[in-house]
Design a protein that fits this description.
The protein is 58% helix and 0% strand. The chain has 125 residues and is mostly helical. Helix 2 runs antiparallel to helix 3. The chain starts with 20 loop residues before the first helix and ends with a helix.
Length: 125
């Protein structure tokens, strides 16, 4: 058995964990969006309706479990989390419905396109 202590060996090239945006952005353009929360959720799960819905259901189930185990404080905490994801789900759903409505409106032809040529000529005279 070897009782010798291992010497500390620092990892190489691990010191650039957090880079500044100017070091990454070498194209010469300025990056004005330096909000620290922009990259908080990198996988985009908060923009996917299905992931938000699953997360909301998970917190609702955790709240039910905590309530059945006799912990009302933890149950309320989970319910607040579920409420947050419910609001986010509704926001994404509204955004999706508005997008669908706008695409339907843009597909409809204008009222001038439906008129025969004679009626168009008469209305311009």
């Amino acid at each position: 058995m070897n009782n010798r202590r291992r010497n500390f060996r620092p990892r190489t090239q691990k010191n650039n964990f957090r880079r500044r945006s100017t070091a990454i952005n070498t194209s010469g353009t300025n990056n004005f969006n330096n909000n620290g929360n922009v990259n908080f959720n990198r996988n985009g799960s908060m923009n996917n309706m299905h992931n938000v819905e699953k997360t909301m259901q998970k917190y609702q189930q955790l709240a039910k479990d905590a309530q059945s185990n006799g912990d009302p404080v933890l149950a309320q905490n989970y319910l607040q989390h579920a409420d947050h994801y419910l609001r986010r789900f509704n926001e994404l759903n509204d955004r999706k419905e508005n997008f669908v409505d706008k695409s339907k409106i843009s597909e409809k032809p204008s009222s001038q396109d439906n008129l025969p040529e004679k009626e168009i000529q008469q209305s311009t005279n």
